[in-house]
From TrEMBL:
Source organism of the structure: Serpens gallinarum
UniProt EC number: 4.2.1.47
Catalytic activity, as annotated: GDP-alpha-D-mannose = GDP-4-dehydro-alpha-D-rhamnose + H2O
Cofactor: NADP(+)
One Pfam family linked to the record: GDP_Man_Dehyd
UniProt keyword terms in alphabetical order: Lyase, NADP
Source taxon at top rank: Bacteria
Family: Belongs to the NAD(P)-dependent epimerase/dehydratase family. GDP-mannose 4,6-dehydratase subfamily.
Function: Catalyzes the conversion of GDP-D-mannose to GDP-4-dehydro-6-deoxy-D-mannose.
HAMAP family: GDP_Man_dehydratase
Protein name: GDP-mannose 4,6-dehydratase
Alphabetized GO MF terms: GDP-mannose 4,6-dehydratase activity
């Protein structure tokens, strides 16, 4: 019998890449999907796997639907990738973010504890929990100081995972993932916002790109690399928490430069700083130290930022040209 995995957020960027990885490894993949009027499965179609995933309707805010999905799928592994994942929106929807990104984790852990205690659990934590950084490079021992409702909600999800691991001896691990991008990233995220705009400006469909703090520094990697780390965590004998990052930090400004240079443009001619895009509480620098993951999981990032931006630019040029 194949291994069975249940993925919340299966229609998101990470969910799609993880589903593809697990299917390639021979898993039976189940996905939790919320009812939406818009098309949410386009990423799965992009990867050619839409028809290979078994879907369960449910929502992280609804404990009963989570329990049904766990009971019906009978998974050996559960990956909680579902979230309200856009930091900016968390300021406009702080309560929803808290329920989905915080309480939703408890719903999953309770369902596993009651109905599938041998199941291994992965929680998608985030570098946004570090926020106002307390160390130059952030690792598993760096104190947290979140600076947004998203970071606070994710911190609850992180600590409740630790609590269930220690209190109920569940195999529950958290991946503290730094920024990870791909051509499947949502347009609201800054990397896609930049590559989409660069493509549109190059093709004469847009004139400028409005951004906030372009001197913010982030540790950017490729989502396709990072989902491998998720899977590796659940293959370990002992559950634990791991920082997943490249160990290299780059400004939004330099990321813009890479994207616009790919199409022969100077970003300074097109990028406009707009105060409305600044956060109420800025996170100026994030830089991860993935030494533990490299040593214990044997994981290393494979894709440079330059290669990642090239991938995203080529995908956006094709898409915009078809419009």
């Amino acid at each position: 019998m194949p291994n069975v995995a249940l993925i919340t957020g299966v229609t998101g960027q990470d969910g799609a890449y993880l589903a593809k990885l697990l299917l390639d490894k021979g898993y039976e993949v189940h996905g939790l999907v919320a009812r939406r009027s818009s098309d949410t499965r386009w990423r799965l179609r992009e990867l050619g796997i839409e028809g290979e995933v078994r879907y369960h309707e449910g929502d992280l805010a609804d404990a009963c639907s989570i329990q049904r999905a766990v009971i019906k799928s009978r998974p050996q592994e559960v990956y909680n990738l579902g979230a309200q994942s856009f930091v900016g929106s968390s300021w406009d929807q702080p309560v929803t973010t808290g329920i989905v990104d915080g309480l939703g984790v408890t719903h999953l852990l309770e369902a596993i504890r009651q109905f599938a205690p041998e199941t291994r659990f992965y929680q998608a934590s985030t570098s946004e929990m570090f926020g106002l950084i307390q160390a130059e490079r952030q690792d598993e021992n760096t104190p947290f100081y979140p600076r947004s409702p998203y970071g606070v909600a994710k911190l609850y999800g992180h600590w409740i995972t630790v609590n269930y691991r220690e209190s109920f001896h569940l195999h529950a691990s958290s991946g503290i993932l730094f920024n990870h991008e791909s051509p499947l990233r949502g347009i609201e995220f800054v990397t896609r916002k930049v590559t989409d705009a660069a493509a549109r400006i190059k093709l004469g469909k847009q004139k400028e790109l409005r951004l906030g703090n372009i001197d913010a520094k982030r540790d950017w990697g490729f989502a396709g690399d990072y989902v491998e780390a998720m899977w590796l965590m659940l293959q370990q004998e002992k559950a634990d928490d791991y920082v997943i990052a490249t160990g290299v930090t780059t400004t939004v400004r330099d990321m813009c430069k890479l994207a616009f240079e790919h199409v022969g443009l100077n970003y300074e001619d097109h990028v406009v700083i707009d105060p409305q895009f600044f956060r109420p509480a800025e996170v100026d620098v994030l830089l991860g130290n993935p030494a533990k993951a490299e040593h214990e999981l044997g994981w290393k990032p494979k894709t440079s930022l330059a290669t990642l931006i090239q991938m995203m630019m080529e995908a956006d040029l094709r898409r915009v040209d078809r419009e």
